[in-house]
Amino acid sequence: MNALNMSMPEEYGGRVYEGIWRILASWFRVPRQPPELPQQANETIASRRPAPGFLRYLRFGFAILMAILCLVTAVGWLAVTIASPALGLVVLLPVVLLMAGWLAIGWVAIRLRYDTTWYVFSDRSMRLRRGIWLIREITITFENIQNVQTRQGPLQRFFGIADVIVETAGGGASPQGGPSTGHQGLIEGISDAAELRDAIREKIAASRTTGLGDEHEPRDQQRECRWSPQQIAVLREIDLLLRTSSDR
Fold first, then answer.
1. Which of the following CATH numbers is that of domain 31-38+45-209: 3.30.530.20, 2.30.30.100, 2.30.29.30, 3.30.70.890?
2. 133: which residues sit within 8 A by CB, 6+ positions away?
3. pTM across the whole model
4. What parts of the sequence cross the membrane (predicted)?
């Protein structure tokens, strides 16, 4: 009976969230499926989301923020109540409803952020997507990546997650500390960040593509000198003139 009582709130909360998700996805046209990448024959496509620890990490940060906000609001309400008890009673209910609304909206927003974050990898490139109101999607080819590194703060270490940062030519840190710029991609909330970093480095070393998939020619063929028939004919005429001049 206790197990049933414990599962009912989770099931009810899941149904409420699913309903909210359908409404927001319909309004903002947010796909729940991972983004697609161009795929060639015999090429593998792998998609993944942040680790569950990333969701707990976001919720923990939000809980701290809400605790601070509630404390400030309570102090303000107490000051108003001391100055005017009648006014304190009048604003008590609106303040409680406002705080409850912030809590509900923030809790759902965090879950939506987690569910709309996708990382898709092929043998030639990666595509990162996140966001609901403003969908950010960036595609990075492995051949253009100049540096790959991991980042892990103390709180991330506690939740067992880390970030993988990939930088392309001319890239650098995001000026606002955001998820990505035109020269940088952030893969956040990964439980196996070191393994993913090494896998990306292996793909960089093995990559022989440019852009989104135009194949390079082998290097020995690139060094091979190619002449058109017209150029060969001109060279033969020059060779003939040189030989005639030397005979004279």
1. 2.30.29.30
2. 28
3. 0.69
4. 57-80, 86-110
